[in-house]
Amino acid sequence: MIRSLSTAASGMEAEQTRLDVTANNIANVSTPGFKKSRVEFEDMLYSVSRAPGARTGADSMSPTGEQVGMGVRTVGTDRVFSQGDMRQTSNPLDVAIEGAGFFPVSMPSGEVGYTRDGSFKLDVQGRMVDGSGHPLVSDVVIPPDAQSISIAPDGVVMVTVAGDATPTEVGRIELATFANPGGLLALGHNVFRETIASGTAIASTPGQNGTGGLAQGTVEMSNVKVVEEMIDLISGQRAYEINARVIRASDEMLQQISNLR
Hints:
The chain has helices spanning 2-27, 226-258; strands spanning 37-43, 46-50, 55-57, 60-61, 66-69, 72-79, 86-88, 95-98, 103-106, 112-115, 121-122, 128-129, 146-151, 156-161, 164-172, 175-177, 185-188, 191-193, 202-204, 213-216, 218-220. It is elongated and about 100 Å long. It is of the alpha+beta class. The chain has 2 helices and 21 strands. β14 and β15 (164-172) form a beta hairpin. It starts with a helix and ends with a helix. It folds into 2 domains: 2-81 and 224-258, no CATH class; 86-220, no CATH class. The strands form 10 sheets. It has a 3-stranded antiparallel β-sheet with strand order 13-14-15, with no helix packed on it.
């Protein structure tokens, strides 16, 4: 009887984590470059009273045994790196990745961060920076007298300046890929950091080595589908309620036992 209480409690904890992840997905439905997460579960240890194949007689054995599970636990949160919807902005500094890859940016700590958010701005030095002010590792600098900016699918950045109609190359945007992007560590601010699990970043020209091409004047939006998240929300809520009912039923059975004369 006590076992059912702890087993149902583990189910409630797991579903609470699921609801937390779902809530974060919904909250970031409008965040550029955001990639949704999903929770993965696994069953816990089993109490084995009789193993399958155990002898039950001289010429007989148990075909299935007797195994009772001890509940469930969260084994991890898997980030889904599917392509988000593309939104046209007509802003020449907005760049979306059509396919795999990340923009490498320089962090204040000296480390390199990786982001899918291509809504870039210019800092006081003319460098292309993300929304948090992290400059691209490619160090693309736009002259203050630039009249137009052109970013090719392969990452070449060209500008035209006043008095010169000939476009000038001012830098090349590179992308990074990972053997296991799900192993990246989320730092917030739409930035990830490489880990042992993700593997070392592989720098490539956009459109080569499995990376996607760049689309200027476009922003990749979140890949969160509100309808799917609402279904997960309802499913998680119902599973939480059912586990709570198991605890209530176990408590009532314990109460009946304690009332025996």
